[in-house]
TrEMBL record:
<dbReference type="Pfam" id="PF00941">
    <property type="entry name" value="FAD_binding_5"/>
</dbReference>
<dbReference type="InterPro" id="IPR005107">
    <property type="entry name" value="CO_DH_flav_C"/>
</dbReference>
<dbReference type="GO" id="GO:0071949">
    <property type="term" value="F:FAD binding"/>
</dbReference>
<dbReference type="InterPro" id="IPR036683">
    <property type="entry name" value="CO_DH_flav_C_dom_sf"/>
</dbReference>
<dbReference type="Pfam" id="PF03450">
    <property type="entry name" value="CO_deh_flav_C"/>
</dbReference>
<feature type="domain" description="FAD-binding PCMH-type">
    <location>
        <begin position="1"/>
        <end position="177"/>
    </location>
</feature>
<keyword id="KW-0274">FAD</keyword>
<dbReference type="InterPro" id="IPR002346">
    <property type="entry name" value="Mopterin_DH_FAD-bd"/>
</dbReference>
<dbReference type="InterPro" id="IPR051312">
    <property type="entry name" value="Diverse_Substr_Oxidored"/>
</dbReference>
<dbReference type="GO" id="GO:0016491">
    <property type="term" value="F:oxidoreductase activity"/>
</dbReference>
<keyword id="KW-0560">Oxidoreductase</keyword>
<dbReference type="InterPro" id="IPR016167">
    <property type="entry name" value="FAD-bd_PCMH_sub1"/>
</dbReference>
<keyword id="KW-0285">Flavoprotein</keyword>
<dbReference type="InterPro" id="IPR036318">
    <property type="entry name" value="FAD-bd_PCMH-like_sf"/>
</dbReference>
<dbReference type="InterPro" id="IPR016169">
    <property type="entry name" value="FAD-bd_PCMH_sub2"/>
</dbReference>
<protein>
    <submittedName>
        <fullName>Carbon-monoxide dehydrogenase medium subunit</fullName>
    </submittedName>
</protein>
<dbReference type="InterPro" id="IPR016166">
    <property type="entry name" value="FAD-bd_PCMH"/>
</dbReference>
Length: 293
């Protein structure tokens, strides 16, 4: 199929993009990398009246560290995250996750802002920003808002973005002493949509978790920050405690059944990932900087 007819406007600045969005409201869609938007339009799942192309806005690129915050512009491509020394040092979870996103052609065009705004529940990056306790920065006609990643995703392809707002950046707290990360997903083939995945950030001291954030994806209508992690913080992780945590996780999940997997399979794979994550993070030696390998 082909997309329905639409108008096209190439924004010359963020201000210009916001003007175009304010004029067109729900009839407009923002085009950045287009790797999710265009297939959806070709399948007639989306039929905007106008595309507002922000792909040429240099002000939405760049990766910088300001104080204890890593600031990532919305138009940084997946490949930029893979190559960034700042991401590797301060938020390596993003680099690890991006390696699983689709295929090189997609990673060369797709952007972090586009991925987050699209809010596919099987996507890797939404779960990562939830696990990293990131803040999503959006700008609109009423000014700028900062939204906690845990509050940004509202459902399947649904976010807290208003029709006249643009996602402009992601702010991630830099990794501190003892920080370490885990990422793994199950997919039928590398690059396919995940059946189940887990993005985790932890702080480990003296063989225990002093902090643990577990961001599961492809287990519901949005990324899930598992409350189960609380059972494993400031406690000796014994086989009995881990069994209790996996049972609690299975109760917490409400996965959907589709052509890829049954709900029972997703629930089982999520508990397997939890066990693997805990074992990996507690066994991992720390670098001299305090950031886990």
């Amino acid at each position: 199929m082909k997309a329905a007819a639409f108008a096209y406007a190439r924004a010359t600045s963020v201000v210009n993009a916001l003007e175009l969005l304010a004029m067109n409201g729900h009839k407009a869609k923002v085009l950045s990398g287009g790797q999710s938007l265009m297939p959806a339009m070709n399948l007639r799942l989306l039929s905007p009246d106008i595309l507002v192309d922000i792909g040429g806005l240099a002000e939405l690129r760049g990766i910088t560290v300001t104080g204890d915050v890593l600031v990532i512009g919305a138009l940084n491509r997946h490949v930029d995250l893979l190559r960034s020394p700042e991401v590797a040092l301060h938020a390596r979870l993003l680099r690890d996750a991006v390696a699983h996103v689709a295929h090189p052609a997609i990673r060369n065009r797709g952007t972090i802002g586009g991925s987050l705004a699209h809010a596919d529940p099987a996507s890797e990056l939404p779960a990562c920003v939830v696990a990293l306790d990131a803040t999503i920065v959006v700008r609109g006609s009423a000014g700028e808002r900062r939204i906690a990643a845990t509050e940004f995703f509202r459902g399947i392809y649904e976010t807290a973005l208003l029709p006249d707002e643009l996602l402009v950046a992601v702010e991630v707290p830099v990794a501190g002493q003892g920080s370490t990360f885990f990422f793994q997903e199950y997919a039928r083939r590398h690059g396919d949509y995940a059946v189940v995945g887990l993005a985790a950030r932890a702080v480990v001291a003296a063989g225990r978790f002093s902090d643990l954030r577990l961001g599961f994806f492809a287990v519901g209508d949005r990324p899930l920050l598992a409350a189960t992690a609380g059972k494993l913080i400031n406690a000796a992780v014994t086989p009995a405690l881990l069994a209790e945590a996996t049972s609690a996780l299975a109760d917490e999940l409400d996965p959907q059944e589709d052509q890829q997997a049954t709900a029972a399979m997703r629930r089982h794979l999520a508990t397997v990932l939890l066990r693997r994550c805990v074992a990996t993070l507690l066994a991992r030696p720390e670098l001299e900087t305090g950031v886990g390998k």
